[in-house]
Amino acid sequence: MEDCCNSNLKETKVEHSGNCPFCRNKAKIVKLITLKSLLKPSALETLNAEATHYFCSSKECDVVYFDTINKKYLISDIKVSVHQKNDSTTTPICYCFDWTKEKIENYVKRELGPKPIEQIRENIKENRCGCEVNNPQGSCCLGNVTKFIKSLS
User: Fold this and answer.
1) Domain end call among 61, 77, 93
2) Which terminus of the chain has fewer CB atoms gathered within 10 Å of its CB, N or C?
3) 57-104 confidence digits (pLDDT tens)
4) What pTM does this model have?
5) Phi-psi group of 42: left, alpha or beta (phi > 0 → left; psi -120 to 50 → alpha; rest → beta)
6) Would you say residue 1 lies in a domain?
7) Hey, which residues does 99 pair with through a beta bridge?
8) CA 84 vs CA 53, 57, 77: distances in Å
9) What CATH number has the domain bearing residue 36?
10) Which pLDDT score, from 0 to 100, does residue 112 have?
11) In a domain, 24, yes or no
12) Is the dihedral of CA 17, 72, 44, 59 positive or negative?
């Protein structure tokens, strides 16, 4: 993925591009490839490929994606659990390298190696990540992993 995860390993800020019309929280634009990869077939059949699509990360909102004409895709329309909307310990935070909340917590608390951030960074460096097609937010997970680790302290 050419622009998946910044190759210089800096976390990039993603511009918020609007508000979810259903919960009014900030949402960000996602690429069409993300929706094509993660929508269930029945939802994919209704996708307007010409519209701009947004990701809503609000935990209180069942909407994961919506477009410029407010067509919405709910949690039930997505093939994977969405980290921002699911508290289950088995939900991935890093979708490319299978770092779940439970696995990260075990590694951090027991000080096991490889450490999640270092392992993810090494894979990013080797151009192995595929966040655009694996991560529902359509962008690098490193910020989510870092935030989760900080929440454990």
Assistant:
1) 77
2) C
3) 999 999 999 999 889 999 999 999 999 999 999 999 999 999 999 999
4) 0.86
5) alpha
6) no
7) 94
8) 18, 6, 15
9) 2.20.25.270
10) 75
11) yes
12) positive
Residue 84 DSSP one-character state: G
CA dihedral 48, 50, 133, 64 (to 10 degrees): -50
What DSSP character marks residue 122? Answer: H
Residue 59 sits in the same domain as residue 87: no
Residue with tokens 């929706």: 35
Tell me, yes or no, whether 55 and 92 share the same domain.
Answer: no
Examine residue 3 and state whether it is found in any structural domain, yes or no.
Answer: no
Q: Which domain holds residue 141?
A: 83-151
Residue 111's contacts (CB-CB under 8 Å, 6 or more residues apart) are none
Q: Which amino acid, one-letter code, is at 120? A: I
Q: What is the phi-psi region of residue 101: left when phi exceeds 0, alpha when psi lies from -120 to 50, beta otherwise?
A: alpha
Please enumerate, as own/partner, the contacts of 12-21 that have beta carbons within 8 Å and a separation of 24 or more. Answer: 12/140, 14/139, 17/52, 17/54, 18/54, 20/54, 20/56, 20/58, 20/61, 20/63, 20/66, 21/66, 21/70
Which of 33, 51, 77 terminates a domain? The answer is: 77
113 Cβ contact partners less than 8 Å away, ≥ 6 residues apart: 107
* CATH classification at residue 103: 1.10.10
